[in-house]
# Entry
Amino acid sequence: MKRWLLTLALAGGFAGTTILADDNPFKKGGTAKAEAKEDKKDVDTARVAHIKLSGDLGESPLPAENLFGPPEENFKMKLDRIRKAAKDEKISGLFLQLDDLTVGYGKLNELRRAIADFKATGKKVFAYSEEYGQKAYLLATDCDLIASPEGGGVILVGLRAEVTFYKNTLELLKLKADVLKVGDYKAAVEPFLADKMSDANREQITSMMDDNFQSELVAPVVKGRKLSAEKVKEIIDNGPYTAAKAKSVGLIDQIIYEDEFPDAMAKVLGTKTAKIERNYGKPKAQKLDFSNPFALLEMMGGSKTEKESKDPKIAVIYAVGAIQSGKSGNSNPLFGGSDAVGSETIVAAIRQAEKDDTVKAIVLRVDSPGGSALASDVMWREIIRCKKPVVASMGDVAASGGYYISMGCKKIYAEPGTVTGSIGVFGMKLVIGELEAWGGMKTEVITRGKNTGVLSSTFPWSDSERKALTETVEAVYEQFTRKASEGRTKAGVDMPVEKLKKLAGGRVWTGRQAKENGLVDELGTLDDAIAGAKTLAGIDPKKDMELLTLPKAQSFIEKLMDGDAKLPFGASLKVDLSQVPGLEKAAKIAAPLLATQKDVIKVMMPFHVEFK
# Structure
């Protein structure tokens, strides 16, 4: 996060107190006298689990081993560590170190739910950050103690949607976007055609912002800090805040440095000291035995195949990223290496779960802005064909194609802040013929067939090609709305096609709005969706069951073949333009489109809108 506070550059080193973690906190053995001393020490010392939360906390399944460092962590692994600490009788509290948390409101709500469950055990939760960004602070409001150093602060300034338009830029570059769309609200292509926001797009963004501002921003601060809604809105309008000002208006509790934090936690816990269990529950790096090349190769090829248990399971299938035909993977490394949901991979995962006699139901975890219309339809078909119950759980985003694959499920769960809907279709290609001519290139064409230029990037669509493609786009839209209506009707919602179309047209909704309009069935977390899947399978929703995560993560060698393997010291076998200053926004815009570049017809949300 870019700091809004002054930055002080100091020459030389910095000496301070270091809080050390106990690598082996649960010591065994020793004399009775030593054990008595240990018991006495435990009475005076509270053990606090430390978990660091930063970045967007991706949801894609990860390999068990990382060849050159500790295993990577995804969102579920972070939640599991919080749950583990809640059940650990030796743990009295949870220390959340928050650093540039950029999750969406869907994941943020799941984290808040996990913290609430932790506190329900009678344990305390503590938040510390050098500087609270907005998402980090909203999470911190559920904690028993919020602290920041004197040079820190809180960035609580409200919501902002920025929509960037590229029409004039494309003209300067001698480029042109040729576009077909269905739906007044299908704003994914608007930045390429106009230089200002349409009334329809402004309406949907305003509606979502109003809903999120009150429910996802104001309400958590009101509840957590015991302030009135009017006071919170006043605080937001006067932000950001230094640590001192944040404390004076009631946003944080203490101004202390991290080395002082254990004493502050101990005071809340009523003990003499607080012992921090650093990186509690985090998997450790596997030691490499370079003298054994076979062991090294085995590790590079993936973890050892464990014998599958015969216990009943719920399969959780992750559909994360832009939707494309073929296999899932890390697409377009040049533009940020965004995740991509491949129809071939998801279909195989569903069939694997269906054939596994121990799997009783399936949960499809969706975090996708959409993509290929064809790939979305292929996955939808496999979902409705599956003979086992399939439930959808929406994460931060499940829009357009993300909604398409969800609507085939028997029940849909979404978070209140999930971005969903966007039931609409568009076709687009970028025409570079004028740029080629400007550069001295000349293209001659010999053709047999009237509409052979539908995929040509050199020339815009002819009238005949445009007519044929328009019919295709309209047909896909009719297919989308019809199947959405059928899916909602099967779920017990009164949703004839005419009513569904009033909610479609490419319009985007929050999860809360989608629930009110009947586009989703329940507001809830992934755990709620898993409980719902158990119920559909005739199983007690409270029964503990093993989870089968699909699709399986790629091994190091598989990633190497895909050009996505990470090397030590942060090096990588790919170039990432999203890390170049000034190009972050362009990379975010380009990545989903490039992931589906071979598909002219797309079902994709207006991903260019970014709420800050």
Notes: Residues 1-30, 333-337, 564-583 have pLDDT under 50 and may be disordered. The chain has two domains: 32-157+239-277, 309-611. The CA atoms of residues 10 and 393 lie 48 Å apart. The chain is about 35% helix and 20% strand.
